[in-house]
Design a protein that fits this description.
The complex is a heterotrimer of chains A (about 290), B (about 290) and C (about 120). Chain A is of the alpha/beta class and about 290 residues long. Helices cover about 35% and strands about 25% of the residues of chain A. Classes of the chains: A alpha/beta (about 290), B alpha/beta (about 290), C alpha/beta (about 120). Chains in contact: A-B, A-C, B-C.
């Protein structure tokens, strides 16, 4: 069983649109949307939810107004500025609360509760391309990467149960906890970039992250024709670091037209773009060691 | 005034808008890059960096001579940065969130503050525009600790120079994005009218509206996509502060690292007008607050 | 006193090994001299955003265990287990708790020098 994750560093390079197309092209796979902060893959795949689970992670502090005598020790000790006076005493701002328990431990009146924090929901769904494991964090929730690990675990179990040899993941932008968790146990990361100064800069950082965590990396240059000089610089970088450039895709409004119709680009009549994408998928299968 | 430029979806044009606003701003202004995972503002503002400093956060360090292995620290720590069992105490500094609980609870004062490197903070000037940025160390998982330090530096800078700040926030709607906008006076949400843009914009609205700050939208790549974004903004009473049309020439200018407010007089005017509308939005709330006082 | 902890899906020797350590459903602690078993439930680990492996190491260390039999262990948990003087037998998923203990008693389980799972 192989795990392939599509990442980007920079947002907006086309990661989700391409993952959707790969989900169409690939056989025998479980699809997973690991961008739990702002998931979009479901907009292309129109999932029918078959299973829903609540996701709880960590705790948050809540001051019981009846027991609080207004001493303010909690506010003094809170390193995150989460506790403020509110006229009636002190109150915890859940947006700022880190769930560290310091206020709970030091309150002289034991006036602070510490309930579990409801952070979101995750789902196992059916789609026209196969099973999809996905989630939605509640807006503002902590994104420690724990939910990403839960989804990966579910996807792997589902792959085992259904005899699928591939888990194909849409990753998150950036280089923080969720991306780090996404890379854990992945056999291949495919970075989608664009030939712009930001695209190149962010690719270099996410490539560095992959190297740090010893994850194999291949690159797709999307919107290739926006700036040929910048594209050449990216190619030179990939050459120097031995990252395979598996596709150079033209900037094509086709991707957006497909998105508006709730389709992936390979479901529209064939073009150079979709042909190039099919070649890219074949290369991904080869690089990931999927014997097909 | 502190303006935060945020979005739900990545790649909608936050950095584009931040750089262009800074370029047309009247009065002292600092461009702040709080997208510490993938900072891009410097690529457009091209600042001369005056100073760069490593940023650290405090993590536990134990003096085992004083430790009695009572495990009070280990019991309190929600993040398992400190672990005590039998006659062993282990520190995992990369797990620490910096709450200071272990140091405070230790009866023998055996735990003191060590350091973990978070990344780098730099500041300088890009012509008339001040510049401040954080850059997360590769492998550092959490961005909020570094973001807090950048914000603290911003407070220092604004205290010295007065003026406004325009913050380039990270994408998304979870803790890093909320952290970036939390202490601003007005939030500008940049989106595109595509289905992904609209969906993520709704998430952003759900995340940021409860913060009760003046909120306005900028529609980038207008003309590509559907009417859904306009319907949503009308429904929620969200003012659309500017529209930047989809134009291949703009995309290419951006791809060449240009600040798009400099591409044409009409684009410059778009941002000058945006600047005015942002100021009005911030002032309206002040007037409302004053009227109720 | 010779005590072994086995990560388990349930409290008995007939239950399947839970391949995970940090977020295992629970640990069956076996006294190898008497074959008496005790079950430590690990359900609380599901709520932890991070550090479940370290916490699990604390739990079994306090139970006086000298060896762990499991599927896989991450680097931080491995560090904690090593600090506790607990030897680690990995890659035992697919067996029941009882079968794993039998193999261990027969000297067929190699003690790991390094964790077999990448960090997160």
């Amino acid at each position: 069983m192989r795990e392939v994750i599509i990442i980007s560093g920079k947002g907006g390079t086309g990661k989700t649109s391409l993952t959707g197309a790969f989900a169409h092209l690939a056989e025998g796979k479980i699809i997973c949307d690991l961008d739990v902060d702002a998931p979009d893959l479901h907009l292309l795949l129109q999932p029918t939810k078959e299973r829903l689970e609540e996701f709880y992670s960590g705790h948050e502090a809540e001051i019981d107004g009846e027991k609080c005598d207004g001493c303010g020790l909690c506010a003094t000790m809170c390193q995150f500025g989460a506790i403020r006076e509110n006229g009636a005493g002190f109150a915890v701002d859940p947006v700022r609360c880190e769930g560290c328990k310091v206020c709970v431990a030091f309150c002289p009146n034991a006036a602070i509760r510490f309930p579990e924090r409801h952070c979101g929901q995750w789902f196992v769904s059916a789609t026209r391309f196969g099973p999809l494991v996905h989630a939605q964090l509640l807006p503002g929730a902590e994104n420690s990467g724990r939910l990403v690990m839960v989804l990966k675990q579910q996807a792997r179990e589902l792959a085992k149960a259904r005899g699928a040899d591939l888990v194909l993941c849409d990753g998150a932008p950036g280089i923080g906890c969720p991306v780090i968790s996404s890379l854990s146990g992945a056999h291949l990361a495919v970075a989608v970039t664009e030939p712009t100064p930001s695209g190149r800069h962010d690719l270099e950082r996410v490539a560095d992250l992959c190297r740090h965590f010893q994850t194999a990396l291949a690159v797709i240059i999307n919107k290739h024709d926006l700036n040929y000089e910048e594209a050449a610089r990216i190619e030179a970088f990939c050459q120097a670091e031995s990252y395979t450039v598996i596709a150079r895709l033209p900037h094509d409004m086709l991707v957006t037209r497909a998105m508006i119709q709730g389709l992936v680009v390979t479901e529209l009549p064939e073009t150079d773009f979709s042909r190039e994408l099919a070649h890219a998928w074949a290369k991904i299968e080869a690089l990931a060691g999927l014997g097909r | 005034m502190i303006v935060a430029v945020a979005s739900g979806k990545g790649g909608t044009g936050k950095t584009t808008v931040t750089a262009s606003l800074a370029a047309v701003w009247d009065g002292p202004v600092v461009g702040v890059d709080l997208d510490v995972e993938e900072p891009n503002l410097h690529l457009f503002l091209q600042p001369v960096i005056a100073e760069s400093a490593m940023a650290h956060m405090m993590v536990p360090e134990v003096d085992e001579a004083k430790c009695t292995y009572c495990a009070a620290c280990s019991e309190l720590c929600q993040f398992k940065a400190v672990s005590v069992f039998n006659q062993v105490i282990l520190i995992f500094p990369e797990m620490c969130h910096g709450c200071g609980g272990c140091m405070a609870v230790c009866p023998g004062k055996a735990i003191s503050a060590g350091q973990r490197e978070l990344g780098e903070i730099s500041w300088g000037q890009a012509g008339d525009v001040g510049f401040l940025s954080g850059r997360l160390r590769i492998g550092e998982a959490m961005s909020p600790p570094l973001m807090r330090l950048v914000k603290a530096r911003l407070d220092q800078i604004l205290a010295e120079t007065g003026g406004d700040a325009i913050i380039d926030a990270p994408p998304g709607v979870s803790c890093p994005a909320v952290n970036a906008v939390l202490d601003s006076d007005v939030i500008v949400l940049v989106t595109e009218p595509t289905p992904f843009g609209v969906y993520d914009f709704k998430l952003a609205w759900e995340a940021f509206a409860p913060l009760k700050k003046p909120l306005g939208a900028v529609i980038n790549r207008a003309g590509v996509g559907t009417e859904a974004i306009y319907r949503f903004c009308r429904e929620k009473g969200l003012p659309i502060l500017a529209e930047i049309p989809y134009d291949r020439a703009i995309a290419e200018a951006y791809a060449h690292g240009r600040i798009i407010a400099t591409v044409s007089p009409s684009l410059k005017q778009t941002f000058v007008s945006l600047k005015g509308k942002i100021r009005n939005l911030a002032n309206q709330i002040h007037l409302q607050a004053a009227a109720h006082a | 006193m010779n005590m072994v902890a086995v990560t388990s899906e349930g409290p008995s020797l007939d239950d399947q090994i839970d391949p995970r350590f940090g977020r295992a459903a629970g640990f069956v602690v076996v006294n190898l001299e008497t074959m008496h078993t005790q079950y430590i439930d690990n359900g609380q680990s599901q709520l932890m955003a991070q550090g479940a492996g370290i916490k699990a190491a604390e739990l079994i260390a306090r139970a006086g265990v000298s060896c762990l039999l499991t599927g896989y262990v991450g680097p931080k948990a491995f560090k904690a287990l090593t600090a506790a003087g607990i030897k680690v037998g990995q890659n035992l998923e697919g067996l029941t708790v009882g079968q794993a203990v039998q193999r261990f008693n027969d000297g067929q389980v190699e003690m790991a020098q390094t964790p077999n799972r990448a960090g997160r």
